């Protein structure tokens, strides 16, 4: 039995228990599962993707951009660590913005995050295809078969059940970190920093003898490198999407996300320092590579052993691919359960209690985008163009969602100061403001890059289509999901408190 309730410009349907029975999740994750989910989601960015920024600003530009983006993510993760146990729903970013800014704010944030979680695994599987092509020497034209094969396998694992998903996440994350540690230990005796890492000249050309300037393309190069530095941390913010599958989200969510962030900071600076510094590699060559870690292993161990190690290195990419498929399913599920997206997308598997419809739909959409870019850009143009285009599309969606989440944090501090906060951000509002400023700067420099601008504009068009869909259809067919009920109850509470305070004045 369903009844309707109008709240402003949005119409809600109150559904019966059967609706949510078909959309149930299972609790399983503890703090280390959450840590693995956060680190695993990001770790592929330490294997491929970040290195494309070396061509934008050289090694020095990449280092400074990494430090700037680290500050942005610290502001973001501390804000999320405060909001997620206070609002422990699967909606994550959307639920934060919904409570702070109403249905339109929730939808726009959810749509931006949806772009990030659909396209990020697409970027990762593109680089998996690059690694597998290099290892097995298959024709480059067959890369789409690698993409489809990996999607099929890891969709099956994620659909099988949350227990298996988290067990696989912990294992592959530890293996991925172990592979990176092996690379660092192997690289340290084989680096020539000045000769190799600084082998880009002031005009952006490769210097055969190295010894180039620290900032070959100046501060403009640093800023142009920001979108690629994002790849070293992107998706750590997905942890709140596991809130309804966490055993104790109020205790474990802050611990998991903060531990994950500091793990990634150490790993990010190690890979930025060592990978371009390995003798025989260099920043100039790495800037065009789809498999930079494999290039490093080749230079250290030679082609034969490097292939074996690179096959192990693929685990790092798999860790992120697997975990972001998990996040994508929960993100689409939460928006669909509330009616922002078509409600059939939120139906969960009858026995496994996993959002299989959402995960499959997201995968099909991602593959469609990948094939469109593959055939429109041209397979012969290489990883730097195709992977970079997909990467910038994902980063654009992420930056918009970060701005909205940081704004939600500030508004929640103002509107709901008395809400229970099991964890309080030590960076507070200034940290959130830094997040907004750096994210906006990153988007600005994305739009200045003519190579990747078309992909960013395509995402903006997708936003426009989503806004029209919500305005015409979705806002008239909303569902009172847990996120929506929580937001409405606390809005009423805040209004009563403001009225009481005004009466006392």
UniProtKB/TrEMBL annotation:
Highest taxon of the lineage: Bacteria
Ranges annotated as spanning the membrane: 28-47, 59-81, 117-136, 142-159, 166-187, 217-236, 257-279, 299-327, 357-377, 383-412, 424-445, 451-472
Main location per the UniProt record: membrane
Protein location: Membrane
Topological category with respect to the lipid bilayer: Multi-pass membrane protein
Keyword list, A-Z: Membrane, Transmembrane, Transmembrane helix
Domain Amino acid permease/ SLC12A: 47-476
InterPro entries hit by this protein: AA-permease/SLC12A_dom, APC_superfamily
Pfam families named in the record: AA_permease
Name by which UniProt lists this protein: Amino acid permease
Organism in which the protein naturally occurs: Chelatococcus albus
């Amino acid at each position: 039995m369903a009844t309707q309730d109008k709240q402003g410009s949005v119409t809600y349907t109150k559904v019966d228990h059967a609706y949510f029975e078909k959309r149930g999740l299972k609790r399983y994750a503890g703090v280390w599962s959450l840590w693995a989910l956060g680190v695993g989601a990001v770790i592929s960015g330490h294997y491929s993707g970040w290195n494309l920024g070396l061509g934008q600003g050289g090694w020095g530009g990449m280092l400074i951009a990494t430090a700037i983006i680290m500050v942005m993510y610290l502001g973001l993760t501390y804000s999320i660590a405060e909001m997620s146990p206070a609002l422990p729903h699967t909606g994550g970013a959307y639920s934060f913005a919904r409570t702070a800014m109403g249905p339109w704010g929730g939808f726009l944030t959810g749509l931006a995050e949806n772009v990030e979680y659909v396209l990020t695994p697409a970027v990762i599987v593109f680089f998996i295809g690059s690694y597998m092509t290099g290892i097995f020497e298959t024709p480059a034209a067959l890369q789409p078969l690698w993409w489809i094969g990996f999607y099929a396998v890891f969709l099956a694992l994620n659909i099988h059940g949350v227990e298996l998903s988290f067990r696989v996440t912990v294992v592959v994350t530890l293996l991925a970190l172990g592979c990176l540690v092996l690379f660092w230990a192997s690289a340290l005796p084989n680096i020539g920093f000045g000769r190799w890492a600084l082998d880009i000249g002031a005009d952006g050309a490769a210097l055969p003898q190295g010894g180039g300037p620290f900032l070959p393309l100046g501060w403009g190069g640093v800023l142009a490198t920001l979108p690629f530095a994002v790849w070293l941390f992107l998706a750590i913010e997905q942890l709140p999407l596991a809130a309804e599958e966490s055993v104790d989200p109020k205790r474990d969510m802050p611990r998991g996300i903060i531990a994950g962030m500091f793990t990634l900071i150490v790993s990010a600076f190690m890979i930025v320092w060592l990978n371009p510094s390995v003798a025989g590699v260099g920043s100039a060559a790495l800037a065009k590579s789809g498999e930079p870690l494999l290039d490093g292993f080749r230079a250290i161990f030679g082609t034969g052993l490097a292939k074996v190690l690179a096959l192990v290195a693929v685990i790092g990419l798999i860790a992120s691919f697997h975990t972001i498929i998990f996040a994508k399913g929960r993100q689409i599920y939460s928006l669909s359960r509330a009616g922002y997206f078509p409600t059939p997308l939120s139906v969960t598997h009858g026995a496994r209690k996993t959002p299989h419809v959402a995960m499959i739909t997201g995968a099909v959409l991602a593959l469609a985008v990948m094939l469109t870019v593959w055939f429109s850009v041209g397979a012969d143009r290489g990883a730097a163009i195709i992977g970079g285009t997909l990467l910038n599309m994902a980063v654009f969606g992420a930056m918009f969602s970060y701005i909205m989440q940081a704004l939600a944090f500030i508004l929640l501090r103002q509107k709901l100061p008395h809400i229970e906060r099991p964890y309080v951000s030590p960076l507070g509002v200034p940290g959130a403001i830094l997040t907004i400023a750096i994210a906006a700067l990153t988007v600005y420099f994305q739009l200045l890059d003519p190579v990747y601008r078309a992909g960013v504009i395509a995402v903006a068009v997708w936003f426009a289509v989503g806004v029209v869909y919500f305005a015409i259809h979705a806002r008239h067919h909303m569902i009172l999901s847990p996120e929506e009920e929580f937001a409405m109850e606390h809005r009423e509470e805040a209004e009563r408190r403001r009225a009481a305070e005004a009466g006392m004045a």
